[in-house]
Structure to design on (757 residues):
């Protein structure tokens, strides 16, 4: 969303304030489209959860709730460091900004590494949809496979957003080291923060839906 | 001539790079104009093949599977690559910043990106069509599209998926532009209706398009990797696909018609020399249509195992859309009443729109009633109905708008007498093509078959004859618009004596749109009885 060069505003805006308003509104609208994008998947999940509650409950027992909880904590912490980064940019503390952004990226990477281990475990246990999929109870096998189809589609799309987020963070870190951001121009950090929080919130919904419901 | 040397957005630079890397909304609009015209010709040629095959009852010109690929190509190209981007991406891109007195859209580089995304999507889809084509129809219904079809479903659907992001970027850009870049004094209720309808359209772009994107992505995953979401054999539910598909694809119809309605509001006021009757209500009706449009998708599924109760609810909501639509038609008519009407080419298209949209809308109410819909489901009645909206409505508005703003876009006048004749040919050809299809459908001729019983031939001959007339009607503007680029009379800044900020700058405008940012002190459509009738302003005709 950053159409501007540091310290000034692009030619078609009247001033930096107008430019900041446009960028922020643009990011919010983009996030609305993201809600609808994930919304299609959530609709599919809710529909099938209601149709096949038992198979979905059995299937979800094979997800690793410890790793899921750990990852949830990691992501929430990364949202905190991102919020601190935005504040550091607004008050113009360059060192702290770089540190917070690096910490956020590190936590995001941790999440993805844990996710890789979880995916690998599903491969080993033949829980990945496709020809190799196997489930002891053949009657509910198609519905369990459906659960895992949705699991991989939803967490995969979420992970893709995390990867894009890490790319944005890298770009922010490089800019922050050169002192591009400060009280006069913090918009890129702010709107990237919005994006990062959004990706976290998606996980806050995915975690209970996939890991927790029906578990006791 | 001094005016010949004036620097405008067209002659400021001539290199290929200056076009392909431009961030000027006006140049991007022209990039879109060329691309969607090519798409229109591809979609149009497949329609020609369809109509030729249907000239005779037997399947003689085409085999069934080739026919299936052709109507799929026609539908996919016309819906996703012509109708949806047509007015927003060409006229909207060009005019929106001009109408609100801005120098550009809020995110010029995203605007250029949207064109590249559009071209990429178009090329991927065309690649699929050239290397074998898809035969699913433009609706990609599962499980046929994911399990049974042996054709190139993935590239065709992937192109549509990619193209969706160009719609999203355009919608996002328009909303932010309208919110943040209005000229001083341009309050919300002074905006032209064209801007209001584009705002409503953009809402559908950003809320609907992501849903079709994720749905087609799931179709691709299911077809490519056997991840079963919709295929019953893999545990899925094909009706869920229909819900998700129509959640976007019904509102998509309003993406096509709302911008056209915006154009009509501009044309009717200008060529009747009247203020728009009930401005606020017409503006609100755009949003009512956009809002209700999201709640009616189930009327495509009256025969798809929906419960009677949900069928009735969807039926009721679908009929409710008729209210804001009728409000618009009545208000345009009231605007015409006692107006000083000029029968210029854009106005002919506007009047054609009002009549044809009314027929399309009224048959829509018929189709919203569950009983009748079951009778005519998947017949030519449906085909006729939606062509009255999409061709009779959306394309009439697009052509009317193209004529009206052609002097502003190119700095040249088109030949008015020829344009009036072309407009009449389009109107006659359109009705001759599609009215017989209402009758055919009501008599029971199903859509999507390359052969039909002999009793339907007479009406099909009418329809094919009409399509030929319509084809001439579409070719004429293509020819005289091209001709006018070189030989057309030079256009003054405001050839129609119209209100609206876009007419206050020169034709064609300079790159920065306005030498001085305009200050708005009047409401939209501030036409006075005392102002010169448009026929005097018109030099030609």
């Amino acid at each position: 969303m950053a159409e501007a060069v540091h310290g000034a505003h692009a030619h078609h805006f009247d001033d930096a304030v107008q430019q900041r308003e446009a960028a922020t509104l643009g990011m919010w609208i983009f996030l609305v489209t993201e809600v609808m994008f994930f919304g299609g998947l959530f609709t599919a999940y809710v529909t099938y959860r209601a149709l096949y509650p038992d198979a979905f409950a059995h299937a979800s027992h094979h997800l690793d709730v410890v790793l899921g909880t750990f990852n949830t904590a990691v992501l929430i912490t990364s949202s905190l460091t991102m919020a601190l980064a935005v504040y550091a940019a607004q008050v113009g503390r360059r060192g702290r900004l770089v540190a917070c952004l690096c910490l956020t990226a590190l936590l995001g990477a941790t999440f993805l590494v844990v996710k890789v281990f979880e995916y690998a475990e599903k491969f080993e246990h033949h829980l990945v949809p496709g020809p190799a999929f196997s489930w002891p109870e053949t009657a509910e096998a198609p519905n369990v496979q459906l659960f895992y189809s949705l699991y991989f589609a939803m967490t995969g799309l979420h992970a893709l957003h995390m990867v894009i987020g890490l790319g944005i963070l890298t770009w922010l870190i490089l800019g922050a080291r050169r002192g591009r951001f400060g009280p006069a121009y913090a918009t890129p950090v702010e709107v990237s923060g919005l994006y990062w929080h959004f990706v976290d919130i998606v996980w806050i919904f995915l975690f209970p839906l996939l890991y927790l419901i029906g578990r006791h | 001539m001094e005016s010949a040397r004036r620097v405008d957005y067209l002659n400021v630079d001539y290199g290929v790079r200056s076009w392909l890397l431009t961030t000027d909304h006006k140049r991007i609009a022209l990039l879109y104009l060329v691309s969607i015209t090519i798409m229109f010709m591809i979609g149009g040629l497949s329609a020609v093949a369809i109509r030729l095959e249907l000239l005779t009852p037997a399947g003689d010109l085409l085999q069934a599977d080739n026919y299936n690929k052709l109507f799929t190509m026609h539908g996919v190209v016309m819906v996703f690559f012509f109708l949806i981007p047509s007015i927003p991406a060409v006229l909207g891109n060009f005019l929106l910043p001009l109408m609100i007195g801005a120098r550009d859209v809020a995110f010029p580089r995203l605007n250029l990106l949207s064109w590249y995304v559009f071209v990429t999507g178009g090329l991927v889809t065309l690649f699929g069509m050239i290397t074998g084509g898809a035969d699913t129809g433009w609706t990609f219904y599962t499980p046929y599209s994911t399990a049974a079809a042996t054709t190139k479903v993935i590239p065709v659907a992937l192109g549509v998926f990619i193209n969706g992001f160009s719609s999203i970027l355009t919608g996002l850009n328009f909303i932010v532009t309208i919110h943040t870049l209005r000229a001083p004094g341009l309050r919300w209720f002074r905006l032209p209706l064209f801007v209001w309808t584009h705002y409503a359209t953009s809402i559908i772009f950003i809320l609907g398009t992501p849903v079709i994107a994720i749905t087609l992505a799931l179709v691709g995953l299911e077809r490519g990797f056997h991840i079963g979401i919709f295929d019953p054999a893999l545990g899925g539910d094909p009706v869920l696909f229909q819900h998700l598909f129509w959640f976007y694809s019904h509102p998509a119809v309003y993406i096509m018609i709302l911008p056209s309605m915006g154009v009509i509001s501009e044309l009717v006021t200008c060529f009747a020399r009247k203020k728009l009757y009930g401005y606020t209500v017409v503006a609100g009706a755009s949003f009512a249509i956009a809002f209700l449009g999201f709640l009616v998708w189930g009327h495509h599924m009256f025969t798809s195992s929906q419960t009677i109760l949900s069928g009735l609810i969807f039926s009721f909501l679908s009929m409710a859309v008729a209210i804001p639509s009728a409000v618009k038609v009545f208000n345009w008519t009231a605007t015409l009443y006692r107006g000083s009407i000029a029968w210029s080419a854009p106005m002919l298209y506007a009047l054609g729109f009002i009549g044809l949209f009314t027929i399309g809308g009224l048959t829509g109410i018929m189709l919203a009633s569950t009983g009748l819909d079951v009778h005519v489901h998947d017949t030519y009645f449906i085909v006729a109905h939606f062509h009255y909206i999409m061709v009779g409505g959306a394309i009439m508005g697009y052509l009317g708008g193209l004529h009206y703003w052609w002097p502003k876009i190119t700095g040249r006048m088109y030949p008015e007498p020829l344009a009036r004749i072309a407009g009449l040919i389009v109107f006659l050809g359109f009705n001759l093509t599609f009215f017989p299809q209402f009758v055919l459908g009501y008599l029971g001729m199903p859509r999507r078959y390359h052969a039909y019983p002999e009793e339907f031939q007479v009406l099909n001959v009418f329809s094919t004859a009409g399509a030929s007339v319509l084809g001439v009607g579409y070719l004429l503007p293509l020819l005289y618009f091209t001709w006018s680029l070189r030989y057309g009379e030079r256009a003054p800044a405001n050839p129609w004596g119209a209100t609206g900020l876009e007419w206050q700058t020169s034709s064609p405008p300079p790159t920065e749109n306005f030498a001085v940012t305009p200050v708005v002190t009047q409401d939209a459509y501030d036409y006075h009885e005392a102002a010169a009738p448009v026929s005097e302003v018109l030099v030609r005709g």
